[in-house]
Amino acid sequence: MAEARTAEEVAARARRAADLPDLDGAIGGCFACPRLVAWREEVARTKRAAFRDQEYWGRPVPGLGVSDARIAILGLAPAAHGGNRTGRIFTGDRSGDVLFAALHRAGLANQPTSLARDDGLTLRATRIFSAVRCAPPDNKPTPGERDTCAPWLHRELDLIRPTLRVVVALGAFAWAAWWPALHAVYGVRPPSPRPAFGHGAHWSGTAVPEVLGCYHVSQQNTFTGRLTPQMLDEVFTRAKQVAGVD
Ligand code: SF4
């Protein structure tokens, strides 16, 4: 499989992706951001002590979930010792513990935990992906890295476009990543000025998915009580209502 090593190659390969499995495979062969490639591989080599006997994934992390998703959950990027270790988004870290417990309470996941790629997790009506597909240092991708990675996101949205009704943006970075996608995927000019991000923020347009803002499920937010399980439950209840999911 051809590897994508430049922004142009990412855009071309994403455009060619015939379906989600094809896209997921192509994302796995992406080396277009030198800083992130070096970081993901260094983390995979040096590891966290608690995981020293495990083989880290150390590559881009594709989306997770069904191909006819009505609800999309858009995150920032994989965590260094979560998705970058296990190879599945929001899997094997505290953020994922909080997110999947909430999805299970909402009836959108068959189990409340996401520990490894072979743990039997399945989602209902939902797909989860991130704006940037490689773990960045300090969870901070550069604007250039965000833009280079955007075609993967845009193609993924395009492939689930027939059923997608609502996007839950986890955090301000994901919220900001939605507006270029709105233009690239739906041909809709984003509102100006952009709607401000906040927990519970809501945007809707004509014939495009609605967008809900939700504080990110990071430890920083959940440990401090800025984001509580009840707040997450309210967001997913609303997302299900918007998407027409029972
Ligand atoms: S962040 Fe995205 S574009 Fe950059 S190397 Fe990873 S998958 Fe490729």
Automatic annotation (TrEMBL):
GO biological-process terms attached to the record: base-excision repair
GO molecular function terms noted in the UniProt entry: 4 iron, 4 sulfur cluster binding; DNA-deoxyinosine glycosylase activity; metal ion binding; uracil DNA N-glycosylase activity
InterPro entries from the UniProt entry: UDG_Type-4/5 (IPR051536), UdgB-like (IPR044147), Uracil-DNA_glycosylase-like (IPR005122), Uracil-DNA_glycosylase-like_sf (IPR036895)
Domain Uracil-DNA glycosylase-like positions: 62-236
Keyword Transcription: no
Coiled coil (UniProt feature): none
UniProt keyword list: 4Fe-4S, DNA damage, DNA repair, Hydrolase, Iron, Iron-sulfur, Metal-binding
SMART domains: UDG (SM00986), UreE_C (SM00987)
PANTHER family hit by this protein: TYPE-5 URACIL-DNA GLYCOSYLASE (PTHR33693)
Family: Belongs to the uracil-DNA glycosylase (UDG) superfamily. Type 5 (UDGb) family.
Name of the protein in question: Type-5 uracil-DNA glycosylase
Protein's organism: Micromonospora sagamiensis
Upper lineage: Bacteria, Bacillati, Actinomycetota, Actinomycetes, Micromonosporales
